[in-house]
Amino acid sequence: MHRILSTLALAATLGLAGAAQAAVVTFEPDDFVLVLGDGDTHSVEGFDFTLQSGRADASFFVSGLQDPAYVGNGSRTLVAANQANLRVATSSGQGFDLLSFDLGGSFVDFTEAWAESVTVIGHTAAGDLSLTVDLPDLATMATVTLNWLGLSSFELRPNGTPVNDFGPDFSIDNLRVNVVPEPASLAVVALALALAAGVGRRGARPRSG
């Protein structure tokens, strides 16, 4: 019995470890989506993308599939326009690790409206993390590697000067993340380990005679 419970506890632990492995958040499931209002949210693949507008006309939207008008990598991307500040968090409120994401400009034929750089701010229980990244010069996306652990959310803030009331814009794709297991799942593992330990102690009684 002790061996059975130990095996179950190990299986549960390994199951949680597998659940916390890296996932990639993309915008492939979406058709065209436009978010205009400050505080409005668009949810995709377990994550909420909330507009925290820098200007009254700030917005974000999901580009068309392989649309040559936008910077991209052959897939849909999320385009943040007119100094749109974005906040990203899990829909469930769970913590997560941000490993990397792809970053680029917006309209291929309007590079003047691209942000000069984007500041990434990660929020953790221990304090904030911050990194400012220059946008690629070409009509491609570049991978930004962070490996930030234990985030509750993160923000993306474009830096630059608007041109004829347009910009600064940027786009993102392929958020590589680890989602931290829920406390309830961790409690199941702890209970299984405790049961295994209890059976082990009972099985270790000295034999008489």
Give a description of the structure.
By secondary structure, this protein is an alpha+beta fold. It folds into 2 domains: 1-20 and 181-204; 22-179, Jelly Rolls (Sandwich). The protein is built from 2 helices and 12 strands; from the N terminus they run H-E-E-E-E-E-E-E-E-E-E-E-E-H. Strands 1, 2, 3, 4, 5, 6, 7, 8, 9, 10, 11 and 12 form a 12-stranded antiparallel sheet that branches. Strand 3 and strand 4 form a beta hairpin. Helix 1 (2-19) runs antiparallel to helix 2. It is globular. The two termini are 24 Å apart. Residues 4-14 and 186-196 have low confidence and may be disordered.
Task: Please name the defining characteristics of this protein.
209 residues, alpha+beta, Jelly Rolls, twelve-stranded antiparallel beta sheet, 12 strands, 19% helix, 41% strand
Provide a short characterization of the protein structure:
The chain is an alpha+beta fold and 209 residues long. Helices cover 19% and strands 41% of the residues.
